[in-house]
UniProtKB/TrEMBL annotation:
Source domain of life: Bacteria
GO molecular function: beta-lactamase activity; zinc ion binding
InterPro entries, alphabetized: Beta-lactamase_class-B_CS (IPR001018), Metallo-B-lactamas (IPR001279), NDM-1-like (IPR050855), RibonucZ/Hydroxyglut_hydro (IPR036866)
Catalytic reaction list: a beta-lactam + H2O = a substituted beta-amino acid
Domain annotation Metallo-beta-lactamase: ranges: 45-219
Family: Belongs to the metallo-beta-lactamase superfamily. Class-B beta-lactamase family.
SMART domains: Lactamase_B (SM00849)
Membrane-spanning segments: none
Name of the featured protein: beta-lactamase
Record lineage: Bacteria, Pseudomonadati, Pseudomonadota, Alphaproteobacteria, Parvularculales
Compartments, as annotated in UniProt: Periplasm
């Protein structure tokens, strides 16, 4: 499943809208309970958060358009209902590709203002959220307080993490790639992302969590606050090592050869974002005029 996820994720980050249409016949939607009334759905692309209760069915992200019917069937299996709300954690097609289908089926699509703006830049405006927010959005449903918190220039410029306060579950979107994915993180610099922004976002999520928080990462398996702390430490360590070499006048090629991320390569080497590519991204982010 992890290998399939990695391959499909590569496509999802590179392609959106109609370009992402490919054969998903062999993809199955599976689930794992994060807390009572909250599940993670695995398939192809970003992990989906599902919350259900007496009032409504709430999804965080919706993967690729060709998987909508399979996702709907899984939601029906778990809840006996259809999705009422969808919240996109960011604009990438492996997290928002099902928007148009689910919207046509009656779901109301939410996202940060930049999710809508970025999707409107593409070729499928019907996928854009119809309700947007600038800083945070709250949903009071099923006896739950669901809070979406925008974080600036992190994985992209459109990211939000989602906190189910009573269930004590956080969906990170692509602010976190859990280790079992077998890949270094992806930071979309062209999409407004930055290494410092991701680190700051992790700090905010860690502050929000406690020792009992269940964490749904954007990709990979369920984890916890300790997993987020370790992920933050990894990013901060690599960032600081790259910055130190930049300060010494080293070139990008010299820094890549020095392998500042070598310590973490064992678990994450071989994925679609290689060690070298990630170090290059960190360098480009730190030396960009945009920060």
């Amino acid at each position: 499943m992890i290998r399939t996820l990695s391959l499909v994720l590569t496509a999802g980050l590179a392609l959106t809208g109609a370009q992402a249409q490919r054969n998903f016949d062999n993809i199955n939607i599976t689930h794992e309970e994060a807390a009572p009334g909250v599940w993670v759905l695995y398939g192809a692309g970003g992990n989906i958060g599902l919350h259900s209760g007496e009032d409504a069915v709430f999804l965080v992200d919706d993967q690729f358009a060709p998987l909508t019917e399979k996702i709907q069937l899984k939601v029906l299996e778990l809840t006996g209902k259809s999705p009422d709300f969808v919240l996109n954690t960011h604009f990438h097609g492996d997290h928002s590709g099902g928007n148009e289908n689910l919207g046509e089926a009656g779901a109301l699509i939410f996202g940060h203002e930049n999710v809508r703006a970025r999707i409107l830049e593409g070729d499928n405006p019907a996928s854009a959220p119809v309700v947007t927010f600038s800083d945070r959005q709250s949903f009071h449903i099923n006896g739950e307080n669901v809070r979406a918190h925008h974080v600036h220039h992190a994985h992209t410029d459109s990211d939000s993490f989602v906190h189910f306060e009573n269930a004590n579950v956080i969906h990170t979107g692509d602010l976190m790639f859990e280790e079992s994915l077998g890949s270094f993180p992806f930071i979309d610099l062209q999409g407004g992302g930055s290494i410092d922004g991701v680190i700051a976002a992790l700090e905010k999520m860690v502050e929000t969590a406690d020792a009992n928080t269940v964490v749904i990462p954007g990709h990979g398996k369920l984890t916890d606050r300790e997993g987020m702390v370790a992920y933050h430490a990894m990013l901060e360590d690599i960032r600081d090592k790259v910055q130190a070499q930049i300060d010494r006048g080293r070139s990008k090629e010299q820094i890549v050869r020095a392998r500042p991320a070598k310590r973490y390569a064992g678990a994450r080497q071989g994925g679609f974002i290689s060690e070298d590519r990630f170090v290059e991204t960190v360098y480009d982010s730190l030396t960009s005029s945009d920060g």
